[in-house]
Amino acid sequence: xxxxxxxxxxxxxxxxxxxxxxxxxxxxxxxxxxxxxxxxxxxxxxxxxxxxxxxxxxxxxxxxxxxxxxxxxxxxxxxxxxxxxxxxxxxxxxxxxxxxxxxxxxxxxxxxxxxxxxxxxxxxxxxxxxxxxxxxxxxxxxxxxxxxxxxxxxxxxxxxxxxxxxxxxxxxxxxxxxxxxxxxxxxxxxxxxxxxxxxxxxxxxxxxxxxxxxxxxxxxxxxxxxxxxxxxxxxxxxxxxxxxxxxxxxxxxxxxxxxxxxxxxxxxxxxxxxxxxxxxxxxxxxxxxxxxxxxxxxxxxxxxxxxxxxxxxxxxxxxxxxxxxxxx
Length: 328
Description:
The chain has 18 helices and four strands.
């Protein structure tokens, strides 16, 4: 592995001043040695720290030419450097600095590690991108096909908008029926309005900040879900909006049935869940956010009278059996 020319090397003043072999050398020899270190540091790749050109060893005469100093000065310095073991020579005849060679090995190892991590990162990104495209593919096909059928558009199932927004809502627990409900209500509102027609697209319809609100606009869908199974529908909606996990048991069922007999509708339950989730979720009162608290007969009407506030950080979860069939 080749690297760019090294334009610096580590110099340790304490080691330089305390090296016994170097201390006994003349200042002239020390000056020659520091110049040699500079030349050796400029050598590229694995040969950094050696007196070589293109990987080939330089003999004593070539090194003298490289240093461009007086022959007498060079000979004196050379003798001291060799005699005191400062300038090393390998079995293959290459002169080198032990410290520079060791530091270069560390540098090369670090560079190899970086390159390896880059390769792994690139491969991992490619794997995740492919996995992301395949995930929820059947759902995307059904949703995009229905959107194109209703709007006359030619949206692609593997577009960034489709993957980002349909996959995103699917991972929050939404199913095909929810997407169709949103498409239905917004197509009815926007298809014949030239200024709004352009918004019949994945990035608008299925965006996290819009999807719940659009779904709640579909009154026919809400009514259908409520008539199907009010108890399961209410609890599923509660779980998706609050991020908590409950199933319909006898106590919860009794509360919902009791309120239903008093004339409260699916929309009333939705309103109460929205209001109290907005008020309590993520606060010290979060533990009060339970079906038994919200659907208590003596409190329900008061909750219903409260105005709905915008929800923050709503966590939509799961779609397991027994959670019913309603979302906001």
